Amino acid sequence: MAIAQEENISPTSKLESKEILPHVPDASTPVIEVSDLHKSFGTLEVLRGVSMAAPKGHVVSLIGSSGSGKSTLLRCINLLEDSQQGRIIFEGEPISWRGEGVNRRPADRVQVTRIRTNLSMVFQQFNLWAHLTILQNVMKAPVTVLKRNRADVEDSARRYLERVGIGDKCDAYPAQLSGGQQQRAAIARALCMEPRALLFDEPTSALDPELEQEVVKVIKSLADEGRTMLLVTHDMTMARDVSDHVLFLHEGRIEEQGSPNALFDAPRTERLRQFLSHVRAA
Description:
4-stranded antiparallel sheet; 10 helices; 6-stranded mixed sheet; alpha/beta; disordered N terminus; 36% helix; globular
């Protein structure tokens, strides 16, 4: 179960490069840890001191109203956004930074690239390349970023497309697929990177209810495999079914957290009770 813990990428010298060699974690080391994370966009403070952890093989769901900071937290963890204060630790290895506040940036591009390749993100919008077939979409990053052998990658890509139920769509283009099929292709693309963790940012919110269930089924099966996942979702049923731990964010802070049963059956705060009442009525 995820436990809250309250309370550096441009080339550098050889010595600094040695300092950011991949950390070898033991079995108890969380895959992802965040401590006192802050992020603002101008005068808008979006994250106000978030601390959390995701142990290996666990699913942590992030719930909350629009604007509560869920997606921003995910993007900061994946280093798509630069946080302005706090620590991000991947398998025991802290991200190194230079500068402070709004000027803070990762200190080493090599470290960021390496960690990003181990944190595959699935977005709300599928972000598939329209000019490539589904198979080519899934193969592109492992070949171009990881420099893996093309034949080996093709074997893996076909296997993952079968895994998500669209093995017969290898030669189709994104425009020829339904939204649910496109999102499953995006999940296969993420899996083909062989990541240490999967980050899902509202993976079903762009889908109608029928197509949504296709994707939910895949996500549940990945949870059953014991994959480490961070899941931002509006789907409370999925959050309850797949999660080991749930975080409720409100105005950039973790308002409440715990097991799915604890949060959904016995919310302790009025804000969470109001939120759950609203989503159940919708």
